[in-house]
Amino acid sequence: MPVESRDADHQERQVRQRLLERLHAQIEAEIVRGEQSPDNVSVADQRKAFAARLVEHVRPLRRFVRRELGRWVALGAVPPDALSEDELVDTVFVRALQHAHEAPRQGLFRWLRRLARRVIRTSIDAERRRIEHERSLEEPVATLGEDWPDQVVRLIDILADPHAELPEDLLLTQEAQALLEQALDRLPELWREVFLMRTVDGWNEDMVAEAEGIPVEQVRSIVEISRAFLAEALREMQFSEAG
């Protein structure tokens, strides 16, 4: 395993452990406040088991929060760096623990995304009230550099390989990343997240199916069709800009 991958895995384990400790602290605080009986060990254990399930989704949830927050920043709803990605992710997990009784047995990640959208929008509203001004929603999302066609071709080559993984840090250039993001935005949310969990996060089909609450066969179909769709979308961008 490359050193970079080992470092990334180690960092992810640390993030999971930190989040788990925070959620456990939340459970203990509920007991102190009298929201749970200290004698009801089984309930506390169930909540800790649910917390462990939650933190298994930290990597895809962090990516989802980053994309959603980036979209609002690009629209001018909040300035860059006004909101902390880490704090938003933490808030989503705490909120999920508070609403554990609403969590589905299947499709937990889909449920987490709904919570994340609400947390992000609430945080943006609060931040906008704090800074007391409106920003334009007409700012360009991205600009392209001189070498962008070559980067598009390289992205298409990766997508053409049905066994290729898309590294999460696919930053050939900022322009290439922007193009890939634009292509991904053309996919429905479910398809985009299934594709990214499978090809970027390395989750197997069974794990993705459980997280989204869909059949394994549907996961396989979504990944295959999404890969072809993204490659074609990038080709269209290439020819459109070249012309």
Could you write a compact summary of the structure shown?
This protein has 243 residues and is mostly helical.
pLDDT average, as an integer? 77
- The number of helical runs is 10
Largest sheet: none
Helix-strand pattern, N to C?
Answer: HHHHHHHHHH
What structural class results from the helix and strand content?
A: mainly alpha
How many distinct folded domains? 2
Helix content: over 70%
Strand content: under 5%
Whole-angstrom Rg:
20 Å
The stretches of 5 or more residues where confidence is low (pLDDT under 50) are 133-149, 168-172
Shape: globular
| Number of DSSP E strands | 0
**CA-CA gap between termini:** 42 Å
Could you describe the 3D structure shown?
Belongs to the sigma-70 factor family. ECF subfamily. It comes from Thermalbibacter longus. Residues 179-221 form the RNA polymerase sigma factor 70 region 4 type domain. One of its GO terms (molecular function) is sigma factor activity. Pfam families: Sigma70_r4_2. Helices cover 70% and strands 0% of the residues. The protein starts with a helix and ends with a helix. The chain folds into 2 domains: 3-131, no CATH class; 148-242, Arc Repressor Mutant, subunit A. It has 243 residues and is an all-alpha fold. Mean pLDDT is 77; it is low at 133-149 and 168-172. It has helices at residues 3-32, 41-55, 58-74, 85-98, 108-131, 148-160, 174-185, 189-199, 205-212, 216-242.
